[in-house]
């Protein structure tokens, strides 16, 4: 579900990257996050930066391998910017729980935790387990998932 070709996102070829389901336009390109963080660092100096609300809605529950690939690609992109000197102090996933979205109601699911709206039962998705392992390890320790992110 994401592209890690190294090609700048501004020059992507039409149809070269996949998109998320729903109304969100444009391809999923983690390299765009690296480019943005590097540009902010270049244009505004070494200021502390935080990535907030980074995520996407997928048709999942509870095996959200596309979200795992999305997050893996974006965490790697954030790490690339950090390695290049960006003062990146935090990365926050959107969202912990499936929730109500103003534009989409309950139809789109962004959460690491699936919420059964009828019973309010919460179930950890594959992405929640992946994120917990990543945090416990202090960062990414294995190659990126090949399921959707292979270039």
UniProtKB/TrEMBL annotation:
Keywords: Glycosidase, Hydrolase. It comes from the Bacteria. Its EC number is 3.2.1.21. It is an enzyme of class 3 (hydrolase). The keyword Hydrolase applies. The active site is at residue 53. Residues 1-26 are annotated as: Disordered. One of its GO terms (biological process) is carbohydrate catabolic process. Gene3D superfamilies: Glycosidases (3.20.20.80). One of its GO terms (cellular component) is cytosol. GO terms for molecular function: beta-glucosidase activity. Belongs to the glycosyl hydrolase 1 family. This is beta-glucosidase.
């Amino acid at each position: 579900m994401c592209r890690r070709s190294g090609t700048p996102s501004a020059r992507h070829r039409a149809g070269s990257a996949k998109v998320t389901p729903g109304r969100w336009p444009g391809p999923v390109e983690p390299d765009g996050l690296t480019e943005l963080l590097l540009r902010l660092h270049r244009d505004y100096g070494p200021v502390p930066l935080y990535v907030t609300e980074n995520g996407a809605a997928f048709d999942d529950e509870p095996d959200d391998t596309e979200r795992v690939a999305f997050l893996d690609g974006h965490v790697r992109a954030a790490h690339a910017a950090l390695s290049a000197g960006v003062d990146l102090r935090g990365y926050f996933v959107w969202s912990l729980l499936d929730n109500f979205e103003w534009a989409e109601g309950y139809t789109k699911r962004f959460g690491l935790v699936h919420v059964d709206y009828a019973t309010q039962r919460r179930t950890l998705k594959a992405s929640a387990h992946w994120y917990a392992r990543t945090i416990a390890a202090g960062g990414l320790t294995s190659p990126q998932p090949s399921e959707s992110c292979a270039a």
